[in-house]
Design a protein that fits this description.
By secondary structure, the protein is α+β, with helices and mostly antiparallel strands. Helix content is about 35%, strand content about 20%.
Length: about 130
């Protein structure tokens, strides 16, 4: 097996592998410029695996606990469009938030009102340091 950088000629094979895996999400645009790492594992007969890393922004929100519930909503409604516009200007087409379950239960309605949606049900966010 050889691990190497992926090239556009590998994309149809990656699309086939994705389809055969039966995953519940649409394959992203493999040529998207926010894929900063594109690696494939290849045998003599072709690509057998791929791992791409796409830049994503993790969202952090801090609200002064002294604010009233109404002031918090107004603040979020004012802040979010500016944040989204700045993210889009930097080339980000989505952002994500990792919210503890206890907070998510209380905050779910507000997130929905702000246009957020849960990622894939049953999928959990994991992270790993690169060093």
């Amino acid at each position: 097996m050889k691990v190497r950088d992926a090239n556009p000629e590998d994309f149809p094979t990656i699309e086939q592998i994705h389809g055969k895996m039966g995953l519940d999400y649409r394959l992203p645009n493999l040529a998207h410029p926010l894929f900063l790492v594109r690696k494939v594992a290849a045998e003599e007969d072709g690509v057998t695996a791929a791992c791409f890393l796409r830049l994503t922004a993790e969202t952090y929100l801090w609200l002064d606990p002294k604010l009233t519930a109404r002031a918090k909503v107004e603040t979020m409604n004012e802040l979010q469009p500016a944040v989204l516009a700045a993210a889009w200007a930097q080339g980000l087409d989505d952002i994500e938030a990792r919210i503890p379950e206890t907070v998510e239960r209380r905050f779910r309605k507000r997130l929905t009102q702000l246009g957020w949606s849960r990622n894939r049900p049953g999928w959990f966010a994991w992270s790993r340091a690169t060093q």
